[in-house]
Specification:
The chain is α+β, with helices and mostly antiparallel strands and 482 residues long. It has 18 helices and twelve strands. The protein starts with a helix and ends with a helix. Among the domains are: 154 residues, no CATH class; 171 residues, Transposase Inhibitor Protein From Tn5, Chain A, domain 1 (Alpha-Beta Complex). GO terms for molecular function: DNA binding; transposase activity. This is Mobile element protein.
Length: 482
């Protein structure tokens, strides 16, 4: 009661609100982008592709800044950049949005040379402490049907109904975690085919003996041969096959070289003349896989019962089991085994078909002699590249691609790659940002604003505001603002 009474007696101070011409712009992102353009000599890299009209570097700085700030569309990027104050900041004149599409196409049509120059500038500017790399590949949904790159394939975005492209990333591994290359391929190209493009793009910068880490999708005899011929080392995962069943059959956790009862992890090394297998058994993994297969058993039983019910009642199959295409006529008969099996017998039958005894087992392969602990630790750190993909798709938002020509697709991917590169370099340069998320860094840079206060005599006052721990750290080094 007392608190309520106090609230009634409080009067908020009234601030006079008078319309004015003052403007407030997010400035932190643009300052950061300008800093890296200068540091990595991007002005020379891109300047040679456009000598007349608007400066291509100013356009690119604007595009990357917008991608790290709002990032809705090229049209909205044009609206944002065409504000008088932003034009003044970027030293540009007003332009039509088609200029930005042409800029993307220019970047895409010169992709090989641009990415080669970026790679050289990175290694020239930074004395990276090693050249061990992680490789991985993903798919990105593509809207539009004109580009030959757009194909149906295995969708990591869970959109098999959409055309897509595949994208490969090469990243200097922990503790550097900086992407150094990006490759684009057709949407139906498998990882094992895409590998050579990704590898050849960066191999000139890899020292002899560099460790290349990639997953089982690209693990082929041909790809491993390429690595070994260049005197590199590799670490990859393997698909378990029938020959591994013999190892599993004899596997005894009590006799394993690696025994971690607390984590439920056990492992053995199998040394061969040209490679080493790191064979592991994980109790938590086994539990998760068995639980997943148990769910699959019950799902299949439920589906069989739905079909059996339709058969007994002489009705059409439920729609999800039918081919839903007006151009296809099909005659078929359906019979389930449920007529002669109890539920318990059906479950046992399904379990026998799904559970193969490999649950909980996994295997790594390398031509480098590591301990079981080292091999597993290095391979698990490869998930840093998954974080790059997540950042590209969900924070920088290069998915889904809404550009049409092949060159503009390449240009849009390279633009996103540059934005991600700058964020990764911020983490590399500033230890305090090492474990900060893309979302958090973007928000901090966006929060740093420039207020332009217009005086009666036409003079403008520039006021920087909303400094915090992150943007103060970055911007003080990049621009001298304090």
């Amino acid at each position: 009661m007392l608190f309520d009474q106090m609230n009634k007696n409080i009067k908020l101070r009234a601030f006079p609100t008078i319309p004015n011409k003052n403007i407030c712009l997010p400035i932190g992102t643009t300052l950061a982008v300008q800093y890296f353009f200068k540091k990595l000599n991007f002005f020379d890299i891109f300047g040679k592709y456009k000598s007349k009209g608007l400066d291509i570097n100013s356009l690119l700085i604007g595009l990357v800044s917008y991608k790290l700030t709002e990032n809705f569309s090229i049209k909205e990027a044009s609206n944002w950049m065409n504000q008088d104050e932003v034009l003044d900041l970027l030293n540009l004149k007003s332009f039509n949005e088609r200029v930005l599409y042409r800029t993307l196409e220019t970047i895409g049509s010169n992709k090989e040379e641009i990415l080669y120059d970026i790679l050289n500038c990175l290694f020239s500017e930074y004395g990276f402490e090693h050249t061990d790399v992680n490789f991985d590949w993903t798919s990105i949904v593509l809207f539009g049907t004109k580009s030959k790159l757009g194909k149906y394939g295995y969708s990591r975005d869970h959109r098999p109904d959409k055309l897509q492209i595949t994208v490969g990333i090469s990243e200097l591994s922990d503790p550097i975690n900086v992407p150094i290359g990006v490759t684009v391929n057709r949407g139906n190209v498998l990882d094992l085919e895409h590998f050579s493009d990704t590898y050849n793009q960066v191999k000139s910068k890899l020292k002899k003996g560099s460790l290349i880490v990639f997953d089982k999708g690209a693990n082929t005899i041909e790809n491993i041969k390429i690595i070994q011929e260049d005197e590199m080392e590799y670490l990859t995962s393997m698909k378990l096959n029938k020959s591994d069943d013999k190892i599993i059959e004899k596997f005894d956790p009590e006799k394993a070289e690696l025994r971690d009862a607390e984590k439920g992890l056990y492992g053995i090394k199998i040394v061969k003349p040209s490679s080493i297998k790191y064979f592991y058994f994980s109790e938590p993994l086994q539990k998760r896989q068995l639980e997943a297969k148990a769910r699959a058993v019950m799902r299949k039983l439920k589906e069989a019962k739905q079909i059996q019910k339709a058969v007994v009642n002489k009705k059409k199959l439920p729609k999800k089991f039918r081919i839903n295409n007006e151009l296809i006529e099909i005659e078929y008969s359906v019979r389930t085994k449920l007529e002669e099996l109890s539920d318990e017998e059906a479950i046992e039958l399904l379990k026998a078909s799904l559970i193969n005894g490999r649950e909980g087992f996994f295997c790594l392969k390398s031509n480098k002699d590591l301990t079981l602990e080292e091999a597993l630790k290095i391979y698990r750190k490869k998930d840093s590249i998954e974080k790059i993909f997540h950042s590209l798709k969900n924070e920088i938002q290069i998915k889904p691609l809404r550009v049409w020509s092949e060159d503009s697709i390449y240009g849009a991917v390279i633009l996103g790659f540059i934005a991600q590169l700058f964020l990764s370099l911020m983490r590399y340069e500033f230890e305090d940002l090492k474990h900060r998320s893309t979302k958090f860094i973007k928000k901090s840079l966006k929060n740093l604003t420039l207020t332009i206060k217009f005086k009666k005599n036409g003079v403008k006052n520039y006021i920087f505001a909303n400094f915090d721990q992150i943007n103060s750290l970055i911007v003080s080094k990049m621009s001298g603002i304090t």
